[in-house]
Amino acid sequence: MNWRGRITVIFLLVMVMFSCKKGSETYRFFLSEEELLCLPYAQGDSLRFEHSGGFRFSFVVAQKKLSMERSISEHPGDNYFSYEQLFFKLQSVEPELNINFTMTPERAAFYRNFSFNRQSFPLDFPSLQVFDSLMIAGTTFREVSLLVNPMPKAGLVEADTIFLNRSHGILKISMSNGENYHLLP
After folding, report:
1. How far is the C-alpha of 129 from the C-alpha of 125, rounded, in Å?
2. Residue 74 backbone dihedrals phi, psi, to 5 degrees
3. What Rg, from alpha-carbon coordinates, does the chain have?
4. Alpha-carbon distance 159 to 148, whole Å?
5. Whole-angstrom Cα distance, residue 116 to residue 12?
6. Among residues 23, 51, 71, 181, which is most buried (max CB within 10 A)?
7. What secondary structure, in 3-state letters, does 132-148 show?
8. How far apart are CA 181 and CA 173, in angstroms?
9. Looking at residue 147, what is its pLDDT?
10. If you ran DSSP here, which 8-state letter would residue 1 be given?
11. Average pLDDT of the chain, as a whole number
12. Residues near 3 by Cβ (< 8 Å), separated by ≥ 6?
């Protein structure tokens, strides 16, 4: 290619680069104080649980991360919004169980998620049912919220209902096969 051809190619590349408009941030969504306190765990915390069959084990808070994320846009020049995201990962060794919990602000609630051992379902916090109390192993917990799997899959053993409160986090996980895991007070 001669020097005129090279200059033409460079000119066209520069024109293409500058013709693509960069998107703008249209809004920022932040987690409320209540949302930030939804699970009162710190990284490294150990939570003692018991299976309905009597087996006791510990979950460890392997990860807790607060970050700012961007909405997904269809094209490079699309406008976007930013949102704060809180992520928790709880793991146990014996039995091998994993809990992932992702919280985004209610006003940008397109991605709130709870997964238990790779079975995932969205959380619908605006429709949380709140109970006065729940008794577990002789201890009464107050202001308990109930998360129900809105899309159960027939034939799979998966988390069906999660009970939690602000002071202690996850209190109980009921499974679709009738088994449950509960926090040891």
Report:
1. 9
2. -75, -35
3. 23
4. 9
5. 51
6. 181
7. EEEEECCEEEEEEEEEE
8. 5
9. 78
10. -
11. 80
12. none
For residue 167, what are its two tokens?
A: 């002071």
7 Rama class: left (phi>0) / alpha (psi -120 to 50) / beta? alpha
pLDDT at 110: 58
Q: Map residue 86 onto helix, strand or coil.
A: strand
Query: Bridge-partner residues for 51, per DSSP?
Result: 181
pLDDT-flagged residues of the chain (< 50): none
List of residues 6+ apart from 185 with CB closer than 8 A: 136, 137, 138, 139
Tokens standing for residue 113:
């998620």
The CA-atom distances, in angstroms, between 136 and each of 107, 164, 183 are: 33, 12, 8
Residues found in the chain: 185
Query: Which tokens hold the place of 37?
Result: 């306190």
Q: How far apart are CA 42 and CA 61, in angstroms?
A: 7
pLDDT at residue 184, as a whole number: 92
Question: Cα(100)–Cα(98) distance, rounded to whole angstroms?
Answer: 7
CB atoms within 10 A of CB 53: 7
Pairing of strands 25-29, 169-175: unpaired
Task: Specify the pLDDT at position 75.
Answer: 66
Q: Across-strand partners of 172?
A: 163, 182
The model's pTM is 0.72
DSSP β-ladder status, 113-116 and 56-70: unpaired
3 state SS of 82:
strand
Q: Which residue has the tokens 């799979």?
A: 156
